[in-house]
Amino acid sequence: MEVIINKEDSVTTVRLIGRLDTPASQDVAQSFEPLMSDAGGTTVLDCSEMSYISSSGLRIFLSMRKAAASQGGKVIVKSISDDIRQVFMMTGFLNLFEIQ
């Protein structure tokens, strides 16, 4: 799993490339730690190149949402595949995130 972070002004874009499975989630969580401490702006999670998300990955998304909400920021999930959309729908995450 590759994570590419790009910050411009108050918008941080996070490109997630590959499978966000349980083993990868530990490294991804470490990549997200600085984002969570500075989540007052808009964070866009670009999932156009993410092929899979596990429950551990969903937990990271939820932690990011909570961090942003506590700091007055917001999280947008962008370009999810049909398979990941199905997971979001089954878990109720479609109602928690702004999906683009």
Considering the chains and any ligands shown, give keywords for the structure.
100 residues, alpha/beta, Transcription Regulator spoIIAA, five-stranded mixed beta sheet, 4 helices, 5 strands, 36% strand, globular
Strand-helix topology:
Elements: E1 2-8, E2 11-20, H1 22-37, E3 42-53, H2 55-70, E4 74-78, H3 82-91, H4 93-96, E5 98-99
Parallel strand pairs: 2-3, 3-4, 4-5
Antiparallel strand pairs: 1-2
Give a summary of the structure in a few sentences.
This protein has 100 residues and is α/β, with parallel strands linked by helices. Helix content is 46%, strand content 36%.
Give a verbal description of the structure.
- The chain is of the alpha/beta class.
- It has one domain: Transcription Regulator spoIIAA (2-Layer Sandwich).
- It has helices spanning 22-37, 55-70, 82-91, 93-96; strands spanning 2-8, 11-20, 42-53, 74-78, 98-99.
- The chain has a 5-stranded mixed β-sheet.
- Helix 1 links the parallel strand 2 and strand 3.
- It is globular.
- It starts with a strand and ends with a strand.
